Amino acid sequence: MPLELPSLPYATDALAPVISEHNLRMHHEGVHAGYLKRLNTLLETDEPTTRSLENIMGTGRGEAQACACQAWNHTFFWQCLTPWYHPPGRVLKEALAARWGSLEAFQEAFMASAMAHFMGGWTWLVYTPQGRLDIHNAADAGSPLLRGFTPLLAVDLWEHAWYVDYGNDRRKYLQKLWGIVNWPFVEQCLEDALATAEGRRNRLHA
């Protein structure tokens, strides 16, 4: 059984007008599905049902690894968006303020990093092994998992993510995305990362 395309966590028209239904369908059913289709072809003789995307990302090479990363990145990206907006919770807001001074300052820094990334790829909010929040740009199919980072928020910078709706105005795309960021999901990722780090420290001192 091949690796399958995960369903979106909302209807295809739910993110409009920030992301149009046409663009979301093209992105999910075309681009995202295309990476999985190609990956399944590459793994036809490798029993893909016994391997997760994370396993292929960590052990694969070349095109197979790139397709696995892109498939995983897209699945995570969809979870970072929501039509049911809620502002950041206390834990996340305090963590962002401790690192950048305020939520607004973080958003400015994130946008500046995304705008400075010339090629296709991704901009991420991550939790590092050193126990701090950081903004990380990844070219092409790059994934923070391969750097040992825990991803908290992803933004797709490939032109297929925004050109249909915004033409060559990447900045407008980034600005509009803040209105559909799934902050509860981002905060849950942070809380999970903090709990994992605390558990690791406790084991070291046991």
Structure explained in plain terms:
Residues 91-188 form the Manganese/iron superoxide dismutase C-terminal domain. It comes from Kushneria konosiri. Belongs to the iron/manganese superoxide dismutase family. This protein has 206 residues and is mainly α. It folds into two domains: 21-79, Orthogonal Bundle (Helix Hairpins), CATH 1.10.287; 90-204, minor pseudopilin epsh fold (3-Layer(bab) Sandwich), CATH 3.55.40. The protein is built from eight helices and three strands; from the N terminus they run αααααβββααα. It has a three-stranded antiparallel β-sheet with strand order 2-1-3, sandwiched between helices. Strand 1 and strand 2 form a beta hairpin. The model has no long low-confidence stretch (mean pLDDT 92).
CATH-scheme architecture of the largest domain: 3-Layer(bab) Sandwich
| CATH topology title of the largest domain | minor pseudopilin epsh fold
Give the SSE order as H and E letters.
HHHHHEEEHHH
Secondary-structure content class: mainly alpha
What distance separates the N and C termini?
43 Å
Largest sheet: 3 strands, antiparallel
Radius of gyration: 17 Å
The helix fraction, in percent, is 40-55%
* Percent in strands: 5-15%
Q: Regarding quaternary structure, how should these chains be classified?
A: single chain
**Looking at this structure, what is the CATH superfamily of the largest domain?**
Iron/manganese superoxide dismutase, C-terminal domain
Number of strands: 3
Low-confidence stretches: none
Instruction: Count structural domains.
Output: 2
Number of helices: 8
> What strand order characterises the main sheet?
2-1-3
Shape type: globular
Mean of all residue-level pLDDT scores: 92
What is the CATH class of the largest domain?
A: Alpha Beta
